[in-house]
Design goal:
With 607 residues, the chain is an alpha/beta fold. It is built from 15 helices and 26 strands.
Amino acid sequence: MLLRECSQFWRINLMSTALLSLLWMSAALVGVARANDLEKYYAEKSPAKRALVIGNSAYTTLGRIPSSKTDGEMIKARLEKLKFDTVDYYPDVKTVDEFEDVVIPGFRHKVKEGDLVVIYFSGHGFSYGADNFLVPTEMPIPISGKQITKFAEPVDALIGAVAKREPGLIMTFIDACRSVGGIVVNDNLEGLQGVSKGHIAPTNRHNRVNHFIFYATSPGEIAEGFNETTRLSRFTQALYDKIATPSQPFVSVFRDIANEVLEVTNEGQNPYHHDFSKTDPPLLPTEEYVAAVREAWRSTLPRRDPKEIAKFLRRYSISLHASACRDFLRDDWASRYTRVSPVAVERAFERTDFGSVGILRLETPLAYERSVDVGEEQALGMLADARLGLVTAESPEAGVLMRRSKEVLSRYLESLSTHKTTVTTKELVGLTRPDRNAVVMRHINAGTLLEINNVIQAADNQTYVSVTLPETATNFFIRIPTEIPQLLQLGNPLKEVLAPPRAASIPDLVDPAPIRNALAELKAQGFNITWVSLSTAAVLPAQNELERAKMESEQDARLLRLANAEYIIKNELKDEGMDSRQITSISGSSDFSGDGVRVRFFGVKRT
């Protein structure tokens, strides 16, 4: 009998060992698979470069501009030398009908998603209200305000036609006057020929696409051309000279162009631009710039966060990685959840009056995003520690709560609903009402983002949550099972460092030295890292439109710095087996300032 029991004992233990080995191997294979399934998104692809060049010189009703013909020919040659894939050149577009029936459709057909598009025009032009217009060579003058779009081509309509193809970036260059004298008469002045002199600031009508509009002169002013075909117009000459400046963001290049024009015209012509773009790339990037953007992408991608990848795409829309960004977003990866709130992890670091800290969690089918914006979700700051599941690992409260599944579930769902969005961790069904016999409205894939509206304790003693799909505003109900809560041990708060933006690089990378030095120090002290919490400070509120644009750009940069800091940490700890879900982050924190990334390490002593 004893032998049989011993034999059975060893069989059970051997089976357990084999099962553990199998689970370990499966986990390892899953880790390898997760790493490998990103490989295709590391592939690099240059966007196509396409240009539309128009040189209107042979005007019949306005003065001829011989230099505009030369402008168009020379810019065409310059872009071809810069290896543009296609350059469509149209000298002397006569009418609006020719613009809209021939020129625009012929060019637009060639533009594909993600392309770099350059539109160039040299000739007569004018501004009227909030719009700027290109003058065809056979436009009659004067025209009434009501006839403008019949005889003149709006710059915005030209950009809008191309923007519908969703290129990565549109750069429009208009070497034309922006005055209206002698062209447009106001037909609301009882027969008098009054000229509209007002200028209204334009709005961004194509916010899905990055675009710049560069004008040869300021609103209401003239641009200088020449009566000779041997000379380029002032603005085009500067553009021709400087368009190929290596590695310099193009808005900076444009400032150099503007300064040159101001100098050669004795400040009589001041180039002007509208910036409706989240990206400002160099047209000739250096190897250092390409490598920096590559690192930013390899920092962002492993987080698998569609919001962060979408921001990267807007900032680097004509980079080697833009195509992979779009592929990723289409593939709808969303395995980026965590079972504990990033806000709870941040607070846990501050509980230095205790030793090891922990967070109670449930294995529900809803989880938190690994990165949370506390600036947008200010209610998170009002949640008590207990509502976030934060406990001292050794406290009696932890043991009591682990026996009260209903109470922990209530806290957990309240915390989830306070966060802006939650993530589904497995396939679910959405019901028409909070009842297990309700009709199934839809099937919900794992990794879907949902918003929680409210929690319902139904008559059948089950817990349901009313949720909304943010993209469609569709509401339905999900049943949430009550399970025994688990205690996640974070370890001890160990060290905090601040990683500033990386000097002499793109603004989306951090200095890796403070992170590497901290990890080396903790390793030398005999610690294993169990969790890392990252955070960025809140951006100061904007006082005007110009500051608002800078603020939005800086917010995007800080989010990408978070991704870069995480990338650096993962590389440093890649041999330690750290799961990416052991790194959480918050942005918009109000308890520190600056433009760097704060890094907080948790850990335990090696035994």
